[in-house]
Amino acid sequence: MLNKEKVKLGIAPIAWTNDDLPDLGGENTFEQCVSEMALAGFTGSEVGNKYPKDVEVLKKALKLRGVEICNAWFSTFLISKPYEETEAEFRKHVAFLAAMGAKVVGVSEQSYSTQGMLDQPVFEGKHEMDDKEWDLLCNGLNRLGKVSKEEYGVHLTFHHHMGTVVQSATEVERMMAGTDPEYVSLLFDSGHFAYCNEDPVAMITKYVDRIKHVHLKDIRPDVVKQVREEKMSFLAGVRAGAFTIPGDGCVSFDPIFKVLEDASYEGYMVVEAEQDPAKANPLEYAMSARKFISEKTGL
Question: Where do the Xylose isomerase-like TIM barrel domain residues begin and end (predicted)?
Fold first, then answer.
């Protein structure tokens, strides 16, 4: 069983309102979202576009519900823009997270990303970095991670993601080898590894000592197969239901939880499963995910 004193459970607002596809859950309010998170038994939340930007306003709303901010996505452009541009925006982002009490920031390199392109098949046309770009990425991550940890007390965790330059196991391995463990950790996402046909268990086993944030995400293999065969975009796959909550797809979570338990993992595990709220009621799925995690981990 995982340690209740060390491991906290969160859920992402993307199940209620999708920032990349605003019509998905467009009718759901911030208040409904965080209230239902709390009702389902989660104490942590990542940040969505509908969340108040004012720290005190957001803190008050979350405190009423017993919820805290545990992370927020940040897009870097380290291989396509001057480093200084990314750092300037990063500082504002991390200052907000630090003010909210978060301990990690989830970073994804979005240069040449296809994840937001509606007409680009997610399994085709991915940018492959050359050696110079790899150096820019890894050195940039080290610099950002140093700023984040030493000046704000927030750990940089890197989010591998479909359609980005760091998607496959090989790419994650090169990124991890090229960065300083002191400043760069991994945001492990079970669903994104499974989506690109990598082994989530092998990856979490290899890097568990450098993982500071976990996304619990499952996939529906029949939908992912459809995405590949019909040359669908990443977002079209989301609409079609490629992702789902833990226990509702094909990812085996027992060994994942066991690796985390054996390593005495400390931090958040966050349910992140973007679906169409009209098809997958967010509260219903949140409660099912919470039940599944409780049964498997004792949390």
Answer: 38-292
The domain defined by 7-297 carries CATH number 3.10.129.10: no
Instruction: Compute the distance between CA of residue 52 and CA of residue 67 in angstroms, rounded to an integer.
Output: 14
Beta strand residue intervals within 183-298, DSSP E: 184-189, 211-216, 218-219, 243-244, 267-271
Distance CA 283, CA 52 (A): 21
The domain ranges of the chain are 7-297
Q: Enter the DSSP assignment of 14.
A: G
What is the rounded distance in angstroms from the CA atom of residue 44 to the CA atom of residue 90? 22
pTM for this prediction: 0.97
pLDDT at 37 > cutoff 90:
yes
17 sits in which H/E element: none
Give the residue-averaged pLDDT of 203-212: 98
Using DSSP, state whether 128 is helix, strand or coil: coil
Quick check: 112 and 175 in contact, CB under 8 A? no
The answer to whether 259 touches 211, Cβ cutoff 8 Å, is: no
In 72-136, beta strands by DSSP E: 73-76, 104-109
